[in-house]
Amino acid sequence: MGSSIVQAIIDGVLTGGVYALMAAGLTLIFGVMDIINVAQGIFVILGAYLSYSLSVHAGIDPFLGLLITIPALFVVGIGVEWGFMRRLKEGDRTAMSILVTYAVSIVIEGVLNISFTVNYVQIHAWYVNRSVHLLGFYLPYIYVFGFVMAAVLLIALYALLYRTRFGASVRASLQDRTAARLVGIDVRRVSTISFGIGVAVTAAGGMVFGATNAFNASTSYDLISRLLAIVILGGLGSMGGALVAAVFMLVLEDVVAVAWSPIWATAVFFAALVVVLSIRPAGLFGRQVARAQ
Amino acid sequence: MHGGISRRKLTAAGLGSLITAGALAGGLVASSAGAADHAVPKAASPITIGVSLSLSGDFSADGQAFQRGYQLWAKDVNRAGGLLGRPVKLDIVSDASSPTQVVTNYQKLISVNHVNLLFGPFSTLLTVPASKIAYRFGYALVEGAGGAPAVFANGLHNVFDVSLPVVDNLVQFAKWIASMPASQRPKTAAYPTSNDPFTEPQIAPAERILQNAGVKTVYSKVFPAEVTDYTPIADAVAASHAQVVVLGSVDVPTVSSFIQAFAQQHFNPKAFIATGGPDQGAAFVKAVGASNTNGVMVPNGWYPGYANASSRKMVSEYVKQYGGTASGINSDVAEAYSVGQVVAQAVTATKSLDNAKLIAYMHGNHTFSSVQGPVKFDKLGENGAAAAFAFQWQNGKFVQVLPAQDSNSVKIQYPKANWGS
After folding, report:
1. What is the DSSP code (8-state) at residue B416?
2. Is A178 in the B-facing interface, judged by CB distances under 8 Å?
3. Contact list, B239 vs chain A (CB under 8 Å)
4. Domains of chain B, residue spans
5. What is the greatest pairwise CA distance in chain B?
6. What is the pLDDT along chain A (293 residues), one digit of tens a residue?
7. Minimal Cα–Cα distance from B322 to chain A, Å?
8. N or C end of chain A: which has fewer CB within 10 A?
9. Do A109 and B221 touch (CB under 8 A)?
10. B222: nearest CB among A117, A216, A262
11. Which residue of A has its CA nearest to B8?
């Protein structure tokens, strides 16, 4: 049992890193724009399909393919922001964003269903089913590679936000859009680029998700519910919170599944979520905390 | 596959299905009506058959396979002159895999669209509420994917399942293991299963047979329909070193996740059978990868190579219409097609569209023929004449392996080849 729990913790940490990457974009978009992007799940699946297509039709390795899919989804994000998000009024932006992004999600789902059919597919590569044996445990290459990639991208995202002039503009917009505008920051441009970045990172998360799960367009609904739970637990707007919450969620569920029963895994996580929110209504690193980071 | 449960998609029940479902359902109605033009006088008013199908959501792969099965049947029956001299027209609406939406759909089909007959939806989960609506309005609900006990537990007399009752699904497999000489018989077995009305009833009989044969249960746990990460569950099964794994699954992603984790853990059980997923033909192969299918088994009542004249005809027509290969055909297609065949025979025999007469006739100890073999309903509405088979993927082909004494069965691959071979 002891080794099974350790294996479950390893699984949880590795998978949690990938979920953190998917959730980071969601929380970034909310932090900067006060937009709850429920289309994030379908963007993940779109990223998975793009990687799948490049792999199947062009023989491009899924990780290498990110050089194409990340910019592609960045452009998609920019387009969605330009087409829909920036037209939302300041006052009811958050509420309306749920409806608008849901509509975007439906359109993309429909297009994917028509383009790829509803049959499940999965991304295959030499490392998908293989693992490395280390200290008595099998570590799947795909999860290790995915975790390393997630760490690199999250660090890059952190550096972008905290070590660049653009990042300062993002953080200023995150703290107070009106004040940022008053000091000369082009908040609209910052928002557009932030939305693009938030969507772009899903390409990476989607690729790993698509290599570890059979998926179709409808899979996005499962994803968005989990991603929302992660960002709410971590605190809306906090990327550090998203990372902690994702790892916490996956480790807790995985350990409960092994030590007790899989049937209780999700219930225990949501019980923990309720407890945390009752103590810290804004999540582990809620808005005020996040904006002070 | 009879399909099963998921509680995740309720939020997607509304607009989420419109784009795809609308396009697909619209196309279906158009093509069915078009098919009617060949052999049936245009003046004859069509017999409308209402169906709610999961054209989007969790069961979309199965729902759309069902759609093709119904569509193929409608085309065939219209080409042959229709029913009672009238063309049949399918009125299909999407339920987005939601048990709430399926209720709304059947109510609308009956009370607004005034359809003459009903065909069943996909999965036990959706058939249970659908059967209650049909019962309330006095309609017969003939279905092909609601074979779990939950469907018949309500004592309704209007629901008829043309497929194999799911509790019998794994019996052939379990008996085969139990019949092995003690020296070859596996010593241990694992039973991870989804908490689903389709999967759970299958597991208990199989476990009982194997335990009676001395096969020790080393893992037996239920997991929810919605799982964030299958890896720890599959890893725990691998850690049990079970020689037989009986997976209670409803779809391809579940099976795919277990196979991937088993391969990563270098865990190769001697036998691996999943209750649903491997029967989905090309979709299964595409998801798990061809090299991982070798030796994977699935119980069912039909496969594309089934030695039945009408099945062969249907397979041939399916390939002609939709392309691909015979072994790539989802067994849902045959289940749906069988529904149409049984209803057509009942309508023809009674010369009536009166649902009360149809219900009485189908309870009348008559034997119907279908692409899945004979259909004879017992007092509950289950198909007591259905034969149970087990199938296995062998070198890229989906073949019948059980019952072993059946002349159409080929030698079973045991022990199963290693993953990736």
Report:
1. P
2. no
3. 3-4, 7
4. 10-165+308-376, 168-300+389-402
5. 70
6. 678 889 899 989 999 988 998 898 888 888 777 788 899 999 999 999 999 999 999 999 999 999 999 999 999 999 999 998 888 877 787 888 899 999 999 999 999 999 998 889 999 999 999 999 888 888 999 999 999 998 899 888 888 888 888 888 888 877 777 888 888 888 888 888 988 999 999 999 999 999 999 999 988 888 888 888 998 899 887 888 889 999 999 999 999 999 988 999 888 988 988 998 898 888 888 755 444 44
7. 13
8. N
9. no
10. A262
11. A222
Asked if A242 contacts A291 with a C-beta cutoff of 8 angstroms, the reply is no
Q: Can you tell me the distance from the alpha carbon of B116 to that of B126, in angstroms, rounded to the nearest whole number?
A: 21
Q: Within an 8 Å CB–CB cutoff, is residue A81 touching chain B?
A: no
For chain A positions 257-286, those within 8 Å of chain B (CB to CB) are 257-258, 261-263, 265-266
Instruction: Find the DSSP H helices in chain A.
Output: 2-33, 40-58, 62-83, 93-116, 141-162, 165-175, 177-182, 187-212, 219-234, 239-259, 262-279, 287-291
User: Between chains, do A262 and B265 touch, taking CB under 8 Å as contact?
Assistant: no
Question: B272: phi > 0 → left, psi -120 to 50 → alpha, else beta; which?
Answer: beta
Q: Which pLDDT belongs to residue B40?
A: 54
Decide if B20 and A140 are in contact by the 8 Å CB cutoff.
no
Residues of A in contact with B232 (CB under 8 A): 7-8, 11-12, 253-255, 257-258, 262
DSSP A6-43: HHHHHHHHHHHHHHHHHHHHHHHHHHHH----TTHHHH
Domain chopping of chain A, boundaries? 18-233
Q: Which two tokens stand for residue B383?
A: 């198909």
- B-contacting residues in A 189-248 (Cβ below 8 Å): 212-216, 218-219, 221-222, 225-226
Q: In chain B, whose CA is at the least distance from the CA of A225?
A: B8
Calculate mean pLDDT across residues B63-67.
94
Q: In this predicted model, what pLDDT tens digit does every residue of B339-348 receive, in sequence order?
A: 999 999 999 9
For domain B168-300+389-402, give the CATH number. Answer: 3.40.50.2300
Look up residue B198 and give its amino acid: F
Query: Of B11, B233, B261, which has the smallest distance from its Cβ to A262's Cβ?
Result: B233
Alpha-carbon torsion angle A179, A180, A184, A190, nearest 10: -150
Sign (positive or negative) of CA dihedral B171, B174, B176, B182? negative
Q: Which CATH class is domain B10-165+308-376?
A: alpha beta
pLDDT tens string B298-318: 998 888 888 889 999 999 999
Question: Going edge to edge, which strands form the sheet with B88-94?
Answer: B88-94, B47-53, B117-119, B141-143, B159-161
pLDDT at B8: 39
Task: Among B56, B239, B256, select the one facing A218 at the smallest CB separation.
Answer: B56
